[in-house]
Amino acid sequence: MATHLLSAKTLSRHYGSQIAVNNVSFEVHKGEVLGFLGPNGAGKSTTMKMLSGNLAPSQGEIIINGYDLLTEPKQAKAHIGYLPEQPPLYKELTVKEFLLFCARINQIPSSKTKAAVDTVIERCGLSGVTQRLIANLSKGFQQRVGIAQAIIHTPAVVILDEPTSGLDPIQIREIRHLIRDIAKEHSVILSTHILPEVEMLCDRVQIINQGQLILSDTLKGFSQQMQTSHLLLGLSSPPAITVLQNIAGVLEIEAQTDTLFKIHYSPENNPVNNIVSQAAKKNWQLIQLTPQQHSLEDVFMKIIRDEIPQSDQGV
Amino acid sequence: MFTLAKNELYRLFLSPLAWIILALTQLILAYLFLTNIDYFMQIQAKISAIPGAPGVTELIAIPLLGNAATLLLLITPLVSMRLIAEERRNESLPLLLSAPLSSSQIVFGKYFGIFGFFLTLLTLISLMPLSLSLGSQLDFKLLASGLLGLALLLASFSAIGLYLSSLTKQPTIAAMTTFASLFLLWIIDWAGNSQISEESTGLFSWLSLLNHYQSLLQGEVNSSDIAYYLIVIATFLILTIRRLDSERLN
To answer: Which of A120, A121, A134, A224 is 20 to 30 Å apart from A273, CA to CA?
Structure first.
């Protein structure tokens, strides 16, 4: 019990007849960053909303730091910080006023509010803008204020819903730094549809699709799933496709255009050397050879493909 | 809860709306106040001879409070519309919902915030009749009863406005529905008066916000009138709390 800061059991949520989240169970351990990965509309935000107490689950229970979110909402909510997709800000207030308000509603004793606000301003790099109106800040800074709001009461679990969406690349990098910094002291649940973000930040990954958890793994295991196992090959004068198929190490080949081929291979047996030497020998005129990074879509497709036979067996 | 109320009030005063409302209400009522004084000056000579004739309080202060009620009926929806509807539109409601606050704390916080604003307004309004005490004798009991009536009326307006604001995402819709409901509750006893059946007359005039206010303006502090306002306030606050709770479920 002590190591699970948050545990969700058989969580389900229906919107009318539509099932947004279906029977999802998971746990978050102390000091861990859990990535929730999924395409848009997979149920990520719904799950986040349920964990933060904004939405009651149709079924299941959520225990936060030993408190049941449904029966003891106040105690449970004191241990979570939540940043929704759209940061909840009062834009007519200055950064400092807003954070003071957040400190008070999160029941930080009044003797400590000032210290809490100062700490969080420092941590989120807001020192330069404390007296500015939130409405006049850039999206990146507004996002930081949103994060500051979520961690001000040093909650056990911080829930961030797509914290980097809509930011420019520099801001994204800064926010990621901030999240990694936060993860030193808090457990973080992070939802995203950006794969590199998960690789950079998370210890454990869960993939959710159509309301169901289809994968829950450590980042290491997940990276293995993502190992490059195909490459793009471009040849100006290609031979017959069967010739390519017979090169040692090639598992499968798809012709994408007349001159472009997608080659699948097993990671242990990389055919690149063979291809290059054959191409030089037989004058295929190699113009492109690119190892392909698995995109999120590919990982999904792969996992979903793996998933279907299993569930068929179940039926 | 009081943090929320304070924040609500503070944010209200950050917008020009609050200041404009305070200024314009004061302007219009000051004009009415002066016309009432003028009228009183004209008839003063005639009525001074009659024993038990109405004095300054009856002729100036009470009509002023009566007019203030009508004016505030128009103004309340403008202030109350933003309470929850605007938070919803700006998507800042999750801030409160995920903080360790119960729905009733959120609702009471918001309610006391707006009521604080109306109390400020009420204080400013009451300064006008009170200024008469510099040169004349006021019936303080009558005035107090009238002010109590106005305070209760405003408290009911705010509760109704808060509930209707919790139903929608669009502040303008909240304002329109609040105005319509308040106006209906205001005039409902007109229909009541024209009814032939006595039972429905009783019901309609009991429902009217105006009716209960009038007896307070005449200096009659009936517990039934006060109970009426308290029931209205409690009903709409409870409805709002339930509404916020049910939002998590649906």
So the answer is: A224
